[in-house]
């Protein structure tokens, strides 16, 4: 077959590309994922899902498959010279409207393998062992050429092909990289140690090297070790771990994965080309692993982008709606880079011994980014903020239920908190849910319009619903600035 037609070609079968395809299929879009790899990731790379990601995974029915495999963790501690310095967990307590006040420590491979299977189940298996060699953009859409010689015509292309993105480079999107000259080893494995094993992130701070001990799923543990040069062995990395942990020690009974990386920081100048080609995940932002934000930020890109593509392809929204993807997500990426940059630089040894305190202060100050719960789009007091999660009584249901269990990524959701007599003339893609209101509700006596990605789009009083209809008039009828 010389030509395959689809709605969206997705370049890259990492977690972001796979999630884009999964969300697209939920919204009844045709997707084709192309990747050079032979199979999903088996070991290594990202190691945690944050609280906001867990919320969103519930909305799209992925949570129950992933959560039992991971290890909840909401505490970190700092040790130096064999002595306890500090422990941090109370900053989770301040998170409002959040049921999962922790990270889920879980390898990226679990996310990729689950999504890969989900796509196979719906007849949208990844085209593997296949590269993209060219992409042409025209008014009517895109033509993608594969290494097999096939050409694929689609309305959109998503470049989710990682930090060395072919798509980004093909369209010459500026991606200026900062290198703070910090090199880390990362080791996954099964260990023996005389240090008490607890489900928390432990940082050992020492003049020789900082070491971060990350609990993982099952019997795995991960260690990040700051190294002095790019050339080092596993034995040298383990030796640095043991020096930092003194008087305690460990050994690896089984080494599952070993790698090294030098810290790089960048945000793409543009996230889109001609309203047709879009970058997501590491293709448009890279930074250090500190704070565990890379995978989570990329997944949030997918949640933001795909409902907008669905509105354009299936509900008559103007293509200009897609410009809000960059407008909303690029500032988030810049904040994430700033956060991880501050964290990784605070790991440099300080003779005054203040770097442990510095690290803790940064974590507390940047908790909104690290947990994902503080991400917002714009400065409105309500619009652009995440919907809070709490127990409500839904009309027609006998028992109270969590508000997030009422959401559906395929729809906008209009939550009616109270007795609304006004006539609601709404598009077919809006689901209306009436809540038996209580004055203690944070949204008492209001209509709250929730986007598919669980952010608040608009609100109104019970008597004047015009702000709700005005939102849709703007989205469907007028170009977005």
UniProtKB/TrEMBL annotation:
Its cofactor is FAD. GO terms for molecular function: FAD binding; oxidoreductase activity, acting on paired donors, with incorporation or reduction of molecular oxygen, NAD(P)H as one donor, and incorporation of one atom of oxygen. The keyword Translocase does not apply. Pfam families: FAD_binding_3 (PF01494). InterPro entries: FAD-bd (IPR002938), FAD/NAD-bd_sf (IPR036188), RIFMO-like (IPR050641), Thioredoxin-like_sf (IPR036249). Residues 5-339 form the FAD-binding domain. Keywords: FAD, Flavoprotein. It comes from the Bacteria. The keyword Flavoprotein applies. Belongs to the PheA/TfdB FAD monooxygenase family. This is FAD-binding protein.
